[in-house]
Amino acid sequence: MSKQFDVIVIGGGPGGYIAAIRAAQLGFSTACIDEWKNANGDPAPGGTCTNVGCIPSKALLQSSEHFEHAGHSFADHGIDIKEMTLNLPQMLSRKDTVIKQNNEGILYLLKKNKVTFFHGRGSFVGSLGKADAEGYEIKVAGKSEESITAKHIILATGSNARALPGADFDEKLILSNTGALSIGAVPKKLGVIGAGVIGLEMGSVWRRLGAEVTVLEALPAFLGAVDDQIAKEAAKLFAKQGLSISLGVKIGTITAGENDVSVEYTNAKGEATKAVFDKLIISIGRTPNTIGLNAETVGLQLDERGFINVDGDCKTNLPNVWAVGDVVRGPMLAHKAEEEGVAVAERIAGQHGHVNFNTIPWVIYTSPEIAWVGKTEQQLKAEGVAYKAGTFPFLANGRARALGDTSGMVKFLADAKSDEILGVHIIGPMASELISEAVVAMEFRASAEDIARICHAHPSLSEATKEAALAVDKRSLNF
Asked: What are the binding positions for NAD(+) in this chain (predicted)?
């Protein structure tokens, strides 16, 4: 006989395991199904984010930044290092340890919250009774096969790296984010197709460790989703660091040899070019993961791109079937998935879950970091919104000077009449942490004046946020 639950969550990534925990906290008997496994075959919940995405990339970004600082900037602090060497196996081992700690942490949290965990792939078998509203049967295919049922199903199956036609990932020469995190030796020449978040972060890691990195981007503008002023500053700083970024590129034939990869492409001037790389990372976006879900069996609707169709509350076309995270519309961000997971669990309980897409922060963990929330200046212009802007450079911030990292700025955009904050954009040290103040302010519909009047600790990087808010009214005090 099938085990019965109130809620079954398929997928144990940020959206899935958080949804399961919140559902259990609300009193529902809850199951979470996830098929990720580590090298030993043991469960490794956390999805792409924990296993081959957010967490391992940040571990390598931190390690590679330490390496670069030790080789280039420690001397300025009076720290002399002689005969510095890179122990790449140890760096990768540390990254794997961080992953494992997060996997184990999620398993502990599921157990602590009395969520029943199933290790395997979940898929629909069918609906129960004559009406879908009565519930659904889900098959779990793991070491053994079993069947479980529940009235409510939450789909959180995530996404996969998008491949270029004719250039399938082999994770040896042609790499997705998975292979990019496990390169066994620093390549002399590394190619990256796609100047998005993953491409820039992975390119930064391997450039710091000694690779000559070339980034090829199809779009004519660099970081088109980022505020123009911030993107231009980023392009200038990345070029200074040694990242070679070509825009307006049209990729042609990609050929993998025995030990290298050749890429034929046309540059922005229309000139045919060929480059040969030791490794090639392809980071051109991600596709929703619905393979093996057996959606057609129950009539679950997908759109033309393979995303699960949902409404504003994450409801699918099926009664009591919900979907969150990368597999539905909206930004493919782990924290967006988490917020949707919590909101769905609360909606199942009859509460009013809250997800405000306009206050979801974005972060690129390069050095300097780039973070933003709300509208960009180009968006406000296109929408005909009257606004005021204020900026403040980290060059004028005492804490940034003490850190030895004064690149970048904070930028505020506020409504011209009401002064309500419409967007905040940061490029500079610890931007990923600084952006949280802006998110809170925008959730409470604060004005730039509100931030300008709040006392910020001195010396701190957050003072740059206050000063940028002051600059909206042209009364910055330290620049």
From this structure: 194-201, 217, 285
